[in-house]
Amino acid sequence: xxxxxxxxxxxxxxxxxxxxxxxxxxxxxxxxxxxxxxxxxxxxxxxxxxxxxxxxxxxxxxxxxxxxxxxxxxxxxxxxxxxxxxxxxxxxxxxxxxxxxxxxxxxxxxxxxxxxxxxxxxxxxxxxxxxxxxxxxxxxxxxxxxxxxxxxxxxxxxxxxxxxxxxxxxxxxxxxxxxxxxxxxxxxxxxxxxxxxxxxxxxxxxxxxxxxxxxxxxxxxxxxxxxxxxxxxxxxxxxxxxxxxxxxxxxxxxxxxxxxxxxxxxxxxxxxxxxxxxxxxxxxxxxxxxxxxxxxxxxxxxxxxxxxxxxxxxxxxxxxxxxxxxxxxxxxxxxxxxxxxxxxxxxxxxxxxxxxxxxxxxxxxxxxxxxxxxxxxxxxxxxxxxxxxxxxxxxxxxxxxxxxxxxxxxxxxxxxxxxxxxx
Amino acid sequence: xxxxxxxxxxxxxxxxxxxxxxxxxxxxxxxxxxxxxxxxxxxxxxxxxxxxxxxxxxxxxxxxxxxxxxxxxxxxxxxxxxxxxxxxxxxxxxxxxxxxxxxxxxxxxxxxxxxxxxxxxxxxxxxxxxxxxxxxxxxxxxxxxxxxxxxxxxxxxxxxxxxxxxxxxxxxxxxxxxxxxxxxxxxxxxxxxxxxxxxxxxxxxxxxxxxxxxxxxxxxxxxxxxxxxxxxxxxxxxxxxxxxxxxxxxxxxxxxxxxxxxxxxxxxxxxxxxxxxxxxxxxxxxxxxxxxxxxxxxxxxxxxxxxxxxxxxxxxxxxxxxxxxxxxxxxxxxxxxxxxxxxxxxxxxxxxxxxxxxxxxxxxxxxxxxxxxxxxxxxxxxxxxxxxxxxxxxxxxxxxxxxxxxxxxxxxxxxxxxxxxxx
Lengths: 423, 423
Known about the structure:
- By secondary structure, chain A is of the alpha+beta class.
- Chain A contains nine helices and nine strands.
- In chain A, strands 1, 2, 3, 4, 5, 6, 7, 8 and 9 form a nine-stranded antiparallel beta sheet that branches.
- Chain A is globular.
């Protein structure tokens, strides 16, 4: 995805100057982020020492849709799934309300809860983000199929599109890295801010839910790529060139958002999130010739252009032949299969991960935390992945080791809470 | 550590404008970084597509000392230890030469090796950093005690200061996360650039050395903290306030660099690196009162100031008493013990880490990748850690799970290679 976001940040001093000139209002979008100037301990709300934030560092938490879906990709992700330990639906409701309040505050650059300096109590916020800008922090919540089992009386509300994911050819899924009752995707342009987000949600959940899995991810940052060109995956290839242009609302409606006609009603404006932890066989790939690598992807490595083209964004034309009459882009290449004759699209939002080494083999435990959004996985992700799992040349170099499908709730209005249309 | 680095980056366009004005020379320091302008495939050296880099994105690899020691801390680390699989000292020499060449290129923003477009060969560089600025990439090499065993005929050269680390009270060390023949600390202001660095070293080592452990780490970035204030650890406290000011060369000489008088001669200008993987008991900490947290560190959480003070950088005065005559800063607090009556200093260079969750307990597997440099661990790190291990209030909330001590080689001159004074 060519996000090309504006990476400019303001210093506190810049903001104070602007505030003096009455200009801070100009920096604030329509998001209504609450009290932003909280520079002293005497401010009732806000963590002491938290600097003010410019609107470009804030993605509003409240809205028609959840943020973190069509939001241009931030540089870091810290993502986790929770299993509920309570069987009381009212306790779940309370948890989602507490999470909503915490997310609204953190995305606005505030600490969790009004800060107390009472030495006899644990601080409400864990503290590692004090003084940091929110750096476009977003939280995106989804619920898995297990949320609709017998525990909470919600079985009748399970969407038909929230299927039990079929087993794909080659899957080597680890249960501990898959599924979960509730998933939370936390993204930000700073890894400490993202970690702080999920850590505080886990803390708030104590007694009601526990983390089932947690995975951090990254891509190249603005420090290394000020122009914001298409990120490369750990196989060295650009990844996301052909992502649908969801800045165009009709494209987003077609690909991502559940319309009222799809049902159930509580999912209108939501989306379905697929997560796949895809380990890359990096050492094998690194012994592979450039020709084989490019054949596998169907693109040139350095430019990202389709085979035979020069421009990354050149149209994919599968009818083009080489001098010997063979297709320039191999029909079993990743790009050819994922294209799905242009009829099926998903919104990809993946991050690289690195979990050290596999102690059994000494090989790198690294790959892609693949995330995608689609309005109906039965018509989008599943047929695409079935095709890829069966034929993709890339399968020689990757293995899917974790998986999850989640119904991503609609956005939350001011005064509402995440999941309020369902609960 | 208050690094307060200049975080400005240049776009490629800025640089081309400067180049047009004949101004690129002004951007280059004394580091002699070789060919910087390599914008086309016709350039003999340099990975195609690699953008030019400003000197502030480049820390020179060659010099009297290795970089990455007194270099202001970058935001990311990707650090690993290798075990040698060869027993031929000449093969080790060749490996260190190849690593030197690769590091000199990568730190200058070039790919590993002159890039070939020969489709029948694997690319020399793994590709994920193509087009990225080097973002102050540094490589810092050290050798462990096992490097001096019987394999390479170097037993007689082992420095006395490269001791077998004593077992400290409370240590719960995991062998797989400790020691190793060779350690490499890779730091950069971009996580993909840092990963690319160690991954390519591992690739070059194939047949001669394998990764024994690998750990990534982070701190708050310039995106979240444009002013570059003291980073906070994952317990929410500022970490590094009292680090020695190694910008002052006489302080660096006193604390960090091995002088000729210490011996052995091949270590002159080197340093000793200690690595400790310190897991934090985050869930327990988060249930602890603010008062207990501040008592434990001996500092206020929000300001970072010593207890009873307002300013982070206020002098530590352990003679100050409260109204009841008790010391303001508890004698068993972390800051009081680590102070060592002002007589012992180390240069700390730690990063936070997060490795997902501990699947056995569901708790966060996160903490501090503690790294420090000192000129003699027998006189600096070891006595300090013995005192901390025995008495530090913080021990209730942390556990040391990995450990390594390494002789960090002197810097490399142009034409030399890392370790050439030893090998």
